[in-house]
Design brief:
Elements (H helix, E strand, L loop, with lengths): L6 H11 L3 H5 L8 H5 L3 H14 L4 H14 L5 H5 L3 H8 L8 H21 L2 H6 L6 H11 L5 H11 L8 H9 L10 H18 L3 H10 L3
Helix pairs in contact: 1-14, 4-5, 4-8, 4-11, 12-14
Length: 225
């Protein structure tokens, strides 16, 4: 396998395709600090989880247009209230035209509310659990979402974390193509072994550049023609 390019080389490749170094630098995301993440109320974590779940395989514009209806229908995404969703509540939501009426995705709101309440019991708040999770074990956090949350495996969980401001990489099509080109993996990374290789590569680029994973992730994506 080829030796991965340095981050500086990757940045140069991306900048050449994105209008130069200064222009490209302005497009790079800045993750929130642990203090900022810990201050986010748990109901906002549930709201963003829900948005990621409903957007998967569906028009993001439709979800955006209906979002005020989601906020109202799901009681402001209060984890305690959502975790106690009854059969009557489910029936009412399945008839509510202000949201997307997908039964499995509606039930995931209750499951993810319970997951957040469990995290809160373990860490004080769910936000603290996300805020204190080490970047060097980001793939471990993805595994937690896959196993303990609902419908947040794969890129849905990754986009949820990115949207909340957690330092993260997203295994989009172009990021995967770049990782294959760099010799990190030889196919889309789904196994724990391949994900560990991806984590190690990001750790190396992070140590080399001093940049967060979110910026490295975008740089990889933009380095693809």
């Amino acid at each position: 396998m080829p030796t991965p390019h340095s981050f500086d080389a990757l940045f140069a490749m991306a900048a050449a395709r994105e209008g130069g170094a200064n222009a490209f630098e302005k497009t790079l995301p800045s993750p929130k600090t642990p203090t900022e993440l810990a201050a986010i109320p748990d109901h906002r974590w549930l709201a963003t989880m829900t948005r990621a779940v409903f957007q998967a395989g569906f028009s993001w514009k439709v979800i955006e247009a209906k979002w005020p209806g989601f906020e109202s229908a799901f009681w402001g995404f209060d984890p305690s209230r959502c975790s106690m969703m009854s059969d009557d509540d489910l029936d009412a939501l399945l008839k509510d035209k202000s949201i997307v009426r997908n039964g499995a995705k509606i039930r995931s709101v209750a499951e993810n509310a319970s997951f957040l309440r469990d995290l809160a019991a373990e860490h004080g708040t769910a936000a603290k659990a996300f805020a204190t999770w080490p970047a060097t074990d980001y793939v471990g956090l993805l595994t937690v979402l896959k196993k303990r949350a609902a419908r947040l495996g794969g890129t849905s969980g990754q986009y949820f974390l990115r949207t909340m401001g957690v330092d993260s990489f997203v295994l989009s099509r172009d990021v995967v193509r770049a990782l294959i080109r760099e010799g990190v993996v030889d196919k889309e990374p789904t196994s724990q072994r391949d994900l560990a290789r991806v984590q190690a590569a990001f750790d190396n680029w992070r140590a080399e550049s001093g940049r967060p994973m979110a910026q490295i992730s975008r740089t990889l994506a933009c380095s693809i023609e």
